[in-house]
Fold:
Amino acid sequence: MSRFEVNILGCSAATPTMRHLPSAQVLNVRDKLFMIDCGEGAQLSFRRAHLNMTRLGHIFLSHLHGDHCFGLFGLLSTMGLTGHTGEVVIHAHPDAEQIFRPILNYFCRENPFEIRFNSISPSMSEAIYSDNSVTVRTIPLKHRIPTCGFLFEEAESQRHLRGDMAQFYNIPTYMRAAIKQGEDYTTPEGIVIPNSKLTLPPTPSVRYAYCSDTMYSPRIIPYIEGVDVLYHEATYGDDSEPFARQTFHSTARQAAQIAQQAGVGKLIIGHFSARYKDENILLQQAREEFANTELANEGMKIILK
Amino acid sequence: MSRFEVNILGCSAATPTMRHLPSAQVLNVRDKLFMIDCGEGAQLSFRRAHLNMTRLGHIFLSHLHGDHCFGLFGLLSTMGLTGHTGEVVIHAHPDAEQIFRPILNYFCRENPFEIRFNSISPSMSEAIYSDNSVTVRTIPLKHRIPTCGFLFEEAESQRHLRGDMAQFYNIPTYMRAAIKQGEDYTTPEGIVIPNSKLTLPPTPSVRYAYCSDTMYSPRIIPYIEGVDVLYHEATYGDDSEPFARQTFHSTARQAAQIAQQAGVGKLIIGHFSARYKDENILLQQAREEFANTELANEGMKIILK
Structure:
């Protein structure tokens, strides 16, 4: 199963509105769930997206502003009530444990799973998580407080074993895993069949980058170059460019300029200020710079694979 | 303006569902707003109910379980962003300040208003707030942790000045306030007109009681006797009566028995367990004990006056 999907649970800026909830996303990578940011109300959007909470093991917080983490307490409480076991790791700024631990100890003391904090340094890019499906790297962003984005790189898939060849050489089942990993096949008669004859190349791996919150910062380009999908904040439109700079946010046009310069496949803009009753003006401005742009929306599912 | 309204923002039990949000209510008493409990998502429901956040000065927390207070951080942050000034008082168990202050200091340090904690003792009944419109008293409840309900008693209204008499005696405007408060009127000729001839009795004051979370506890009856409206938790139905007792919650039938014994005007049941996909079974069981029962629902407005 090589699924790689991004579910948008919330894409408002600091003040949620009737149309948008605070920042939260859930990635489904080969049926493991990874959460990015956890704004208030995330637990309900999680269910609304028909995602299975028991598959969630890692939560990545971009920064410690309330609209990116106030949903954490409710989500973790509900995970406790619904019998989540094992461990949940919160990858966040070093302050997070000191700030959140007392409240989690007080309210979630009966939770049947461990909550572990993994301190990350938002000022540098480093691999903070890796398993056999995905590697997660931080992307240093430029905001009012230490903030990082996240790059999710899918691990390389196995080669595809050609059905016709498997049948032709009558390759035993127990040998197929090794062949998918690149080994040649030696027939019972001792003839070596090269792997290239037996398999097709793996489906290319995909990469997803999340960049919120940040002001326009071309320094992030090397980290996100050529990703399949970039989510970049676009809090404001051209009308508020000076205000965007002042508050360390981006305009939709600036987000698209980053996408253009980084040569990404597709741009999703989000983190919309409550002042825009209709974000199509933001979409229009972004598309002037980078055509393949879409507006984020609650309930949106981006299928990379 | 003698308005007295209760807005239900959330009436689920600990696990919110697609239909119900965690506990939160807002009372509008003569255009001042008072919040009871503040479950996750309360800030959005607040707006959805077209209530004006700038009129909110007091938040009353029944107990420190997450489903009754995890909306506090987001609400207070948004109040800061939307320019609330002055002071917000959180009336809660003494632990509240120790638990919440660090997180509020971290996330809401730029808020332009003061947040003050008023420690209440859930084990006794006492007046914890009073102004010229309303007095709020605690109601000791019986739950797993220290918990209290709240009784809102409207202050006595002024007497109504009879228009015909005001005209007949040509009573000057500046004297009318005193007459509404019970004074007699002396005409320029020195004749004393008794107040009873000039005014009609005030509209009766109303009382609202909020009792959640609690197991069946007839000891609360003296505190809520004859209130106009009682909100009482009804987490479970008859099917789960032993479980209700075990978790210190009530069944719908028990809530109605309390309403019946206390001779209240109307009962609203809420705090529904997620296991009931249709709460009409709870309503039916409650009505067998107390006919004037209604189900709480998000967006419900109960007009007492």
Q: What stands out?
A: Chain B is about 25% helix and 30% strand.
